[in-house]
Specification:
The chain is mainly beta. 11% of the residues lie in helices and 45% in strands. It is globular and about 45 Å long.
Length: 194
Amino acid sequence: MFTGIVKELGHIRRISGLGGIYKLSVEANDIAGGSNIGDSVSVNGACLTLTGKDKNVLGFDVMGETFNRTNISKLRIGETVNLEPALRAADPLGGHFVTGHIDCVGRIKEIRRAGDNYSIEVAFPREHKKLVVEKGSIALDGISLTVGSVRDGNVVAHIIPHTLKVTTLGSKRAGDEVNIEFDIIGKYIIGCAE
């Protein structure tokens, strides 16, 4: 379980495939010290298990399903990713409950700026429309955001400058893909109603 509050920007050091499992190595100067083999770490919103560690480089085994259904398959050496260690019982809940189970990949349509106010518009598959609630929560690449509006298969979230500075959203452009996790509470409500 995570909160969607990114703790560090990591850098991809290696990606390799072996059968149905891919190996991912991420340089993480801050969270590496407190991470142990077997820990869960959110990498661009996807919950991955730490399977190796060499000083400040974290190693993950990524199942083919996760690799192909997230934007992890598009990552390149040197690219920056959002990192968050798993929530501990005493940690503050600054964002919202994020499981790290990606629902779909969306594509950025536009990032708008009006003074210091920013918003991001992301297109997502229409079959997920019932999971998006205006003023509800959504995680984009593991970042907890509030839904500003929903229209025609697009979600708009507003972003403060601090979030742009400390996450990968500051370097994203129209056409880039983001991992999307819809609010777990909404998923449970829809699941119980069906």
